[in-house]
Amino acid sequence: MSIFLTILLIAAMIATVTMLVRGIVTFLKTTEADLKAGGTGPSASGLKQNKAMMGRIFFQAIAVVIAALLMLVAR
Question: Smallest Cα–Cα separation from 4: which of 75, 70, 51?
């Protein structure tokens, strides 16, 4: 059981890092025109950044739950 949870934890950590990198890449691709278009609603780049952040938070939460389960199993 603990081997399975360890593999899931590693997968969740990789997914977290992947979403972090995707968010950083999207942030770096943001242009000045995207930033100045604030009055016309959210920009496509801003929506992508928000999606990446929410995905990262989701995978971090999964990793924390799996780590807690690992500690309970190891007890």
Answer: 70
| Each residue's pLDDT tens digit, 58-67 | 999 999 999 9
Question: Could you tell me the end-to-end alpha-carbon distance of the chain, in angstroms, rounded to an integer?
Answer: 13
Residue with tokens 């950590």: 13
User: Is 62 within 8 Å of 9 (Cβ atoms)?
Assistant: no
Contact by Cβ (8 Å): 48, 26: yes
Alpha-carbon span 69 to 7, nearest angstrom? 13
Domain count, the chain: 1
* pTM exceeding 0.85: no
Residue 31 structural domain? 2-74
Distance (Å, whole) CA 10 – CA 31 = 34
